[in-house]
From TrEMBL:
Gene that produces this protein: 106081547
Gene3D superfamilies: Cytochrome P450
Cofactors: heme
PANTHER family reported in the protein's UniProt record: CYTOCHROME P450 4P1-RELATED, CYTOCHROME P450 FAMILY 4
Protein name, UniProt field: Cytochrome P450
Length: 486
């Protein structure tokens, strides 16, 4: 072990002691940091990482896993070279644990395939396309309010409502079908959660990083069954849409569905058009669709849940949001331009993402020996960027745990470090869906604020944050929704 580690040791470029540049995390056993995570719960892992990053006092953290040094960045200043790099674009091993689920979709792919797909998919998130999606977001928001109105209690668990809204919205915008119209939608929602649970079990047990061992001793059969369910779900819709697309090309059908409604644009349409040009095959389409649905669902629903909680806990911010939307006009006639004007609400969303970034850290693999921040990392090292810690650096955000949307007022951001808050990541592999996500969240928040006063139940002190595929809480978050008389 030590021989291998010595071969893979990190060095400084100028030969100075490593301790000047990084905090070297002492391992819990003679096998470096290999077993540091063993037996940790998701909340325990979250605490363990915060504890390491606090102990480093702003320095990056260096740890050693089997023949893989891990360099963890916790400050905006140290993230500059990372985000500006044109080399650090490959995803490391633990992302590959999602490979069976997402294939070579945009999140996991690398090199030419990623570049080609990124270019191909960028138009699917263009302003004009977002304009089309606004109607879907409004319809789903109205449906959500109807469901909330019919509930026997005014106490709600925020994830429950945010998840349903986000999944319905992403499926309709990505695939062009309403979740209600499809059989198996409840099963799909549940299965996504079960896939996440098995993914986490693999994360905590490094032996299960190896596919062979996972197949022999892990929950592989169960995992395969879950994957079949979600893949079949998206595959069926893709097949149906493909047929519709073919008929449309032949001029055999109108651009209307079976109920006579005009078909709206969906991201899948971009992919089908590219398939017709020979730029992507059926498997590629499935991978990209599964990636949209996965990336666009939990991330947005988590941010929405924390936003609802923050507004409940900060009535003054809620009042400002309501004042901002008071002169907007009829909800059903609002346009993307109207939502773009909601600057205070946008600050609320950004401040929520600063405090609770749905993706708390990102990682890259060094495909070759890499020089970064005065260090030489051997090939195959991993670099993590801890968005959670960067976003809470008191140097850029004094009183960092406090919820203060005004931090994002234009006059307060001009002099701030460009990577001081990076919830959507930055650089070439930043989030392709960030404008989509902000618009979607604004629409549903406007609808909730027009209909309900949001009152607090759960407090921040009641919550323990934990690592899932995305940031989660061990406890449920509850708020009270008091209907506003019209
Ligand atoms: C609040 C909502 C969201 C947050 C906080 C968020 C955050 C992120 C972050 C941090 C990354 C970088 C991941 C990495 O480097 O490993 C990312 C990538 C990505 N996101 Fe988002 N995301 C959100 C919503 C969405 C939505 C709604 C979609 C699609 C509709 C989406 C699609 C993607 C895709 C496809 C990538 C991979 C991009 C690439 O590697 O080229 N995201 N997101």
């Amino acid at each position: 072990y030590y021989v291998l580690c010595i071969c893979k040791r990190v060095k400084t470029e100028d030969g100075s002691p490593l301790g000047n540049k990084v905090y070297e995390l002492p391992g819990t056993t003679i096998f470096g940091n290999t077993f540091d995570f063993k037996d940790l719960t998701p909340a325990g892992l979250f605490k363990f990482v915060r504890d390491c990053n606090n102990r480093s006092q702003g320095k990056s953290v260096l740890s050693y896993y089997p023949v893989t040094p891990l360099y963890s960045i916790v400050k905006a200043e140290d993230a500059v070279e990372f985000f500006q790099s044109t080399e650090l674009l490959q995803k490391p091993i633990f992302y590959q644990l999602l490979q069976d689920f997402l294939g070579d979709g945009l999140l996991l792919s690398s090199d030419r395939k990623w570049m080609h797909r990124r270019k191909m998919l960028t138009p699917a998130y263009h302003f004009n396309i977002l304009r089309e999606f606004t109607t879907t977001f409004k319809e789903e928001s109205i449906r959500l309010v109807k469901r909330l109105d019919s509930m026997p209690t005014d106490v709600v668990e925020v994830h429950e409502i945010s998840k349903e809204f986000a999944l319905n919205s992403i499926i309709e915008t990505a695939l062009g079908v309403k979740l209600d119209d499809i059989t198996g939608s409840a099963e799909y929602r549940q299965t996504i959660n079960q896939i996440e649970d098995i993914f986490l079990e693999r994360i905590f047990n490094m032996l299960f990083y190896f596919n062979g061992l996972f197949r022999l001793f892990g929950k592989y059969e169960k995992y395969k069954r879950h994957l079949n369910i979600v893949h079949e779900f998206s595959n069926n819709i893709i097949q149906k849409k493909k047929e519709e697309y073919r008929q449309k090309q032949k001029g055999a059908t109108e651009d209307v569905d079976e109920f006579g409604k005009k078909n709206r644009y969906a991201m899948l349409d971009t992919l089908l058009a590219e398939e017709a040009k020979g730029n992507i095959d059926h498997q590629g389409i499935c991978d990209e669709v599964n990636t949209f649905m996965f990336e666009g669902f939990d991330t947005t629903s988590t941010c929405l849940a924390f936003t609802i909680m923050n507004l409940a806990l900060h009535p003054e911010a809620q009042a400002k949001c309501r004042e901002e939307i008071s002169n907007l006009g009829e909800f059903t006639s609002l346009t993307v331009m109207d939502f773009n004007k909601l600057m205070y609400l946008e600050c609320v969303l950004k401040e929520t993402l600063r405090l609770y970034p749905s993706v708390p850290f990102i990682s890259r693999k060094c495909s070759t020996e890499t020089r970064i921040n005065g260090l030489i990392l051997p090939a195959n090292s991993q670099i993590d960027v801890h968005i959670f810690d960067i976003n809470r650096d008191p140097k850029h955000f004094p009183d960092p745990s406090a919820f203060k949307p005004e931090r994002y007022f234009p006059e307060n951001t001009v002099k701030r470090h460009p990577f001081a808050s990076v919830a959507f990541s930055a650089g070439a592999r930043n989030c392709i869906g960030q404008k989509f996500a902000l618009l979607e969240m604004k629409v549903v928040m406007v609808s909730l604020l027009l209909n309900y006063e949001i009152l607090p139940i759960t407090k921040v002190e009641d919550l323990n944050l934990e690592y899932g595929i995305i940031l989660r809480t061990s406890e449920k978050i509850h708020v009270k929704l008091r209907k506003i008389a019209k």
